[in-house]
Amino acid sequence: MTQAYPTLFSPFRLGAVELRNRVVSPPMYQVRPVLSPEGLAWHRRLAAGGAGLVIVEGTSVKRLATKTAADDLRPLVEAIHDEGAAAAIQLFPVIADDVTGPDDPTTGQLDTLVEHFGRAAAVCAEAGFDGVEPHGAHGFLLNQFLMPDRNGRTDKYGGSPEGRGRLAVSIVEQVRRVAGDGLAILFRHTPVGEGYGLDDSLAFVEKLLASGLDVLDVSPARADDVADLAGAFKARFGCPVVAVGGMEDPDAAERALRLGRCDLVAVGRQLIADAQWPHKVRDGRLDEIVRCRKCDEACFGNLREGKPAACVQWPDDELAAYVR
After folding, report:
1. In the prediction, which pLDDT does 190 show?
2. d(Cα 298, Cα 45) in Å, to the nearest integer?
3. Is the model's pTM score more than 0.90?
């Protein structure tokens, strides 16, 4: 274990599995079918670089629940496990093409969505995933349900703050009921958003935890203190918390962990630039790290053009060594 960053590279218990360190590769959309050779190589690369937990990008919960078999997913899980990392998958809510906001679906469609989350989690557990993560952040559908200006529903999924949070709480309850205790449940949450603040989030997360949530993935934290918002949840509930934002600075990551503001740190674009960041930081080879320039040219830039995510600093054959 490195003397410089002992907390960052200490093990952490996530449900039934022990992570080798506190580094999380967060779900990052990459415009490669996740089960294609290139999609498997993307995730194998992230795991081989030394992250303790690799979370597969947001995947349609409807597809997982109705069209995907555990055997289909197993090569993806094995690609991550074989490189020493734990594997989770982010579950993205998909209802129908004409559903663009909280007011569009019927109550029945939302009840079905809750059931789909449970079925999808069961398939993922059978495939060998260590955890699942409903996506409730960044202004996407589940996050919009918390926003009073977006959620004008008058049924059980709207109205009061409790009603606006009921869909997410019901999803966590259903995942726990169907998948049991062997599957860790994470939830990605934006703690301050349109029409709701930190106090509202604290009340919401309290209900998620009572419903079976294991780990809160806080995204984003504020740039002036990368883990302060994550720390608010850690201080209130003591539950495992993931912090993201600025954690590619190992000193900041170590400090946040030591101060008890979080238990895990997510490193995104830096792992695209150099998946070996965890190994290099652990071994004290900081001068060998290919630093993320935050130029967004081949990561977000490629995505905007419908091209697979990459990095301008990659050699042309970066993924080739990870294709099996």
Report:
1. 94
2. 17
3. yes
